[in-house]
Amino acid sequence: MSEQQELQPVFSIEKIYVKDLSLEVPNAPQVYLEAAQPEIDMQLASEGKQIDDGFYEVALTVTVTAKLPEKTMFLCEVTEAGIFRIENVPVEDIEPILGVACPNILFPYARETVSNLVNRAGFPPVLLSPINFEALYMQQRAQQAEAGNA
């Protein structure tokens, strides 16, 4: 094998899995009698870490809460994770890969899991809109830079 082939960048998905799953319906069974449309709130968090030489785990947590004016209908939290092989990539490019590319891969899986879980709880499926992880990543970087300058 030539030296040039050995230094080719490597990015591959080794495994995608549900790391954590939680659903709460605190006001059941009365909440099922409600006719009002709930307000849906979604929160996202992702974290990436090296787990072995050339292997990284990225975990994307999606928290969806459905609330009526006086009570919570449900709270669903899904952590979808993946093991990614990343080799021969410049160190400065690792963080954007973990913060943008990997969450982009994981989000459709998390979205499907949330929808199925909420549906199994007896509610209409929640269809989450696509997320621009690059914009979120840039926003977080700007906030970190601002905090560092303060």
What does this structure look like?
- This protein is α+β, with helices and mostly antiparallel strands.
- The protein has one domain (8-29, 36-124): Roll (Bacterial Protein-export protein SecB), CATH 3.10.420.10.
- Helix content is 34%, strand content 39%.
- The chain has a 4-stranded antiparallel sheet with strand order 1-4-3-2.
- A hairpin with a 2-residue loop joins β2 and β3 (55-67).
- The chain is elongated, with a radius of gyration of 19 Å.
- The termini are far apart.
- The model has no long low-confidence stretch (mean pLDDT 93).
Brief sketch in words of this structure:
With 150 residues, the chain is of the alpha+beta class.
- N- and C-termini, Cα separation: 51 Å
Q: Give the CATH superfamily.
A: SecB-like
**Approximate helicity band:** 25-40%
Computed CA radius of gyration, to the nearest angstrom: 19 Å
Structurally, the number of domains stands at: 1
* Averaged pLDDT: 93
Main sheet overview: 4 strands, antiparallel
- The count of helical stretches stands at 3
Strand order of the largest sheet: 1-4-3-2
CATH architecture verdict? Roll
- Described by its quaternary structure, the protein is single chain
Strand-residue proportion: 35-45%
Give the class-level CATH name.
Alpha Beta
Fill in the CATH topology: Bacterial Protein-export protein SecB
Question: Low-confidence parts, pLDDT < 50 over ≥5 residues?
Answer: none
**Order of secondary-structure elements:** HEEEEHH
